[in-house]
């Protein structure tokens, strides 16, 4: 059952989503119009300049506003204002403003005239809009830039493939690989599977066999995480207690073992590093379940 805080945050989210959709559409339409006046080479150069400009802007915003760190991770989650740790990042005074904001009083025309007009009543409101829109726009720019990548001919592709195969053969190392250097025994894997299922770590239930394949980097598919910060918290705990290697982020990313929930793309080392940093400062929802099972693992 929703409490009054959650209800108001979700109503504010609707207002936020409307503003984001409007601003993003405006940016895309402006870019489309500009492209009509550019040559192909000018379009390529403009996209490149815009990518650098938007990236610089995003970095500056993240450095200036601490509250954006969780927005960056969870902006693709519906109702991210409430579902992410954004609420925890607000000061008590700022939280009270969000909880007490009268949503029916929001005037879209007033916002369009002066985007920062609601920032006093809703701290970071215009900043969040700018950040999310810029992030989405950066993705759009980068996707468009790919059209200008050189296309290899069939002959070049075949030659490149042959060279890679030869190189891989020369570099082939015999013996059993263990990237995670997992020290988890079968009984411990069973306990860990219970932990993951109880905490709803992934979108599917996992078995000790799946975990064995996971730590051997031999999954017959991938796992899709429900909460990246909770996953990072678990792996961090396993690493701290020497069950797996310290460099687990690189192993997960390199082997593309886990997908993000909404984007459905493999988590990168940057994704995992950011999630780990956040999990260290603000414990994710469900961390107590992880702690409970880690204690049981330590007991042997």
> How many separate structural domains?
2
Largest sheet: 2 strands, parallel
Overall shape: flat
Total number of helices: 15
Distance between the termini: 39 Å
From the alpha carbons, calculate the radius of gyration and give it in angstroms: 23 Å
Approximate strand percentage: under 5%
Number of strands: 2
Biggest sheet strand line-up? 1-2
H and E string: HHHHHHHHHHHEHHEHH
* Low-confidence regions: none
Q: Could you say which structural class the secondary elements and strand pairing correspond to?
A: mainly alpha
Give the helix level as a range of percent.
55-70%
How would you describe this protein?
With 300 residues, this protein is mainly alpha-helical. It folds into two domains: 4-148, no CATH class; 186-299. It contains 15 helices and two strands. It has helices at 4-35, 40-64, 68-74, 80-83, 86-89, 92-100, 108-113, 125-145, 154-171, 186-198, 208-215, 228-240, 248-255, 269-281, 287-299, and strands at 223-224, 258-259. A two-stranded parallel sheet has the order 1-2. The model has no long low-confidence stretch (mean pLDDT 87).
How do you describe this structure in short?
With 300 residues, this protein is mostly helical. The protein folds into 2 domains: 4-148, no CATH class; 186-299. The chain has 15 helices and 2 strands.
